[in-house]
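Hey,
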Amino acid sequence: MPERDADGGASAPRFTVGRPSRTVRALLVAVAVLAVLMVAFVLFAGFWTNLLWYRSVHYSSVFGTVLGTKVALFLAFGLLMALAVGANILLAYRLRPLPGAMSAEQQNLDRYRTGIAPYRKWVLLAVSTVVGLVAGGSASGHWRSWLLFMNATPFHARDPQFHKDVSFYTFDLPWYRFLLAFCFAVVLVSLVAAVLVHYLYGGLRITSPGARAGAAATGHLSVLLGLFVSLKAVAYWLDRYSLAVKSGGIKATDDWTGLRYVDANAYLPAKTILTFIAVICALLFFATLWRRTWTLPTIGFGLMVLSAVLIGGLYPAIVQKFQVQPNEAVKEAPYLQRNIDATRAAYGIDDTVESDYKGTSKASGATLRADAGSAASIRVLDPNVVSPTFQQTQQSGSYYSFPSTLDVDRYTVDGKEQDTVVGVRELNEKGIPEKNWINDHFKYTHGYGVVAAKGTTVTGNGSATGGVGAASDSDHAGQPVYTEQGLPTAGAFGPYTQQIYFGEQTTQYSIVGGPTKELDYAAKKHEVTTTYRGKGGVGLDNPVTRAAYAVAFGEPKILYSGAIGHGSQILYKRTPKQRVEAVAPWLTIDGDPYPAVVGTHVVWIVDAYTTTDDYPYSSRTTLGHTTADSTTDDQRSVVARQNQVNYIRNSVKATVDAYTGAVTLYQWDTKDPVLKTWMKAFPHTVQPKSAIPAALMAHLRYPEDLFKVQRQMLTQYHVTNAAQFYTGSQVWQVSADPDSKSGKAVPPYYLSLKMPGQSTQRFSLTSTFTPSRRGTLAAFVAVDSDATSPDYGKIRLLETPTDDPVDGPKLVQSKFNSDAAYAQQISRLRGKDSTIEYGNLLTLPLDGGLLYVEPVYLRGANVDYPLLKKVFVSFNGRNAFDDTLDEALDAVFGSGGGTSTNPTVPTAPTNPGGPTTTPPGGSADPRVEAALTKAQKAYDDARSAMRKGDWTAYGEAQKRLGKALKEAERAEKAAKAAKTVNRPEAAATPSKAG
C-alpha cells in the first residue's frame, strides 16, 4: 500500500539506498585486497629484481648500503619533520583562547571548527604524515652527501682564505647546507601550520577589533620566528665559506670560482656583521615570551633587512664600482692567481710540461725523411671512417654489426707492438631476420669475436713500406690488413672465448642457458649454436622470480613460456657503462669503453672518474659540453653523475667480462681523497691497484674524456701568470675538426709518437690548439697514454711562436681543399658514382717542424665501403698527395732521403692525375731553380701578408705563387723529357719524382 501524507492523500514513493548485501560487500573487499596485493607485488617485483641483479654481479653490498642509507635518511628526516609539524599544530590547539563572545569573523570560523572536531586526530595524523613523507623522500635523495660527510678523507691541502682543508668544502659544507635547508623547511612549515591553527581557533584575528594576536599565540609564533632568524644567522656564517666555491665572473673569465677582491673585502665582513645582527634579532624574538609585544622584534627584523640591503648589497657594489673597477687587474691579481693555481691542481694539469716549439724545420730532406719513419707510427687507418669496411668485409650476417667508431689499442704482431684498430662483432638487434619473441630473446643473444687490423698498413699491390700499400691497380686495394678476422676469428690473439654477451650495442634482455640453443653464426650448410655456461644472469628456476620479471619487464610470457627451463638465466643491463654505473653509482663513467683480449677472455675496459663541484677556487666546466666533439654521439657520451664539475680524477679502471658480465673495479689513483672516501663508504668493492693483472695493464690507456676536459681547461689555464691571464691575450681554442662543417672540436687521436726529447715512441693521446678565432696553430699537446710507462699521464705542451705563425689543421685542410691540382685529382678519383671521405688529419712534431698526414678514402659505387686510395702529407708548407704514405713522404722530403734545400717551398703538381711531387733542392736545371726561387719569394710574401692581416697583398702573392709553380712544373717536365731522350733505357722503368 502507498504511504499516506498528513492530509490522508497518497504521498510520493521514497527511494532509499540500503546497505549492500553481504555478497556485494565481500566482493568489494576482495577487489580492494586484490588491488592492494597487485600494487604490492609490483613494488616487490622492482625491489626483488634489483636485489637479484646485484647478487648476480656480486655487489649486493652496494645495493644494501644505498638502500639502507636512503631508508635511514627517509625515516630520520621524515619523522623529524612529522614530529615538529605535529607538535606545533598540537601546541597551537592547546594554546587556543577560552570561548567568549564571538565576533562575526569567529562565527564564520565556528562551522569549520565544528566540522573538524570529530576528525581532529585524523587530520593531525594526516598532515604530519604527508609532510613527513615529502621531507623523507627529499632527504633520501641526499644519500651521497651523507656518506661523503660520514667518511670524509682529508685532502691535506688548505684554501688560502680560511685555511680549512679542502675536504671541508667538498664533504662537510654540502651536508651542512642541506641540514640548514631542512631546518628552514621545518620551521617554515611549522610556522604556517601554527598560524592556520591559531587563526582557526581564535588566537589570531584579522578583521576583529582589539588585539590581533593573543598572548599565547604571540609567544608561540615569536619562538618560531626567532628560530627562523637564528637559522638565518647560521646561513650568514656558512655563506662566508660558500664564497670560496661561489661562481661568478670577471673580465678574464666567465667561469670564475672563489673569492674576488670585493668578496674578501666587502662581502666577507658584511656576512660576519649580518651574522651578529641576526643573532641579536633572534634574541629579541625570544624575548617576546616575556614582554608579549611585537614592537622590539619588529624593529630588529626591519633593521636586519635594512642591514642586508645596505651592508650586504650596497656596500659591496660601492667597493666594486669605486675601488675595483678603476684598477681591476691589480686588485684581482692575488685572487686570480688563487683561481689559476686551484684550477690547474683540481684538473690535474699543474704538472704540464710546457716548451717552446718553432713549428718549422731547417733540417735537411735526408734527415727529415729518415726521421719521419721513427717519429711516429703514422696511423692511416682511421677508426672513425673504416667501420663500414669492417662491416662489409667481416660482418658475416645482418644480425652482427660493428660500432660506428672503432677503437685503437696496442697488440704485439709478428714480435712487434702495433697500433691496432679493433672492433667487436656485436649483436645487431635490428638485423635479426625474423623478428619474434623467441628469436629476439632466446636465439639471437650475443655477438661473436673481435676483429683487428694494423693501424699503419692497408692492402695493395706492391710494397706497403711506410704504412700504405699501392692501391691503384685494384678496386679492392686499400682495405685494412687484418690481424684477427673470420668466423670463428683467428690470428694474432690466439684462442679466447668469442661469444660477446655484453657489449656497447647490446641493450635488450636475453634468456640464455635453457633448452633453446643460441646462434653463434651461420656456416655454409648449418648453424653453429651454443648454450650459455656463464654465471652473469639471474636464474629463472624460481616461479616467483619469473613472475617478478614478467611484471618488471611487462612480458607475461616470461611466466609461462616453455622455452624457459632448468638453468635458464635472464641477462639485462648489458652495456659496460650500464653495469659499471650500477655497481658504482658514485662514479662518472667515460663515454668510450673499449674492448681488449686479455688472456682467454674479451673484456671491456671502462674508465671511471670521481668528481666534485665544490673544490675551492677551481673554475667549473660542464662535462656534457666539454667532452663533446665531432664524433660524439649518444652511445659515446659520458655518463655524468653531475654535469657541472670543478675537480676530476681518473680514479678507477673497471672491466666488464664480455662473456660472464663480471664487473671488477680497480683503484687507479691511489692518492685521490674522493675515491678513498667512497671506498670507506663501500668497503671491499674496489680492488687495489696491485691486483691489476699484467695482461690487463698492457691495454690500459689514458682516457679520452679526461683528456678532453683537460685540453679545454688548458685553452685558458696554460697561462700561469695572473696579469697575463687577465688580459686574455693568450686564450686558445681546441682546433675545430677540419673535415666537419659543424664547427665542433676535433677528436683527440691515439697513436704512438716520439715527442721532442724522447728517444722512443710512446703510445699517446694528442690534440691541437689554435688561437681564438684564428686558423694558425697555437700549440700541440700530447699525454703519455701507456699505463706501463713511468711517464703515464704526463702532459706535454709544445707552444708555437706568435710572431711567426704556423698553419693549423683547419688552415692546412682548407689549402688542400682549395688547391686546383688536388681538386682535379680528387675529381678523377671520385668518378661519377663514388664519394670521397677524409680521414683523421694527424699532426706530428718532426725535427722542429709539424708534419700533417691525412688519409683519403674512396667509397665506390661497386664497393660500398671506404677504401684508402690516397695520402695527403704537408710539412713546412710543402705538400704532396700520393698513392702511398712512402711516396708522399718522398715527394715532400726527397726520394730516397735526398737533400731538400728548400723545405718551405710549396709543392708543384707534376701531372694533373698522378702523384704530386716537389723536386728536391739542388736541381741541375737552372729553369727549375729560377721558378722555385720565385715561388719561394711569393710564398714568403704571402706568409708575411697573412701575419699583417693584409689580405689584398696575400691574394696577389698567392697569384704569383701559382704562376711560379706552373713555371716550375713546365720546366721540370722539359728537363725530364730531355733526360728521357738522352737515356732511352730509363723509359722502361717509371721513376719517382724528387
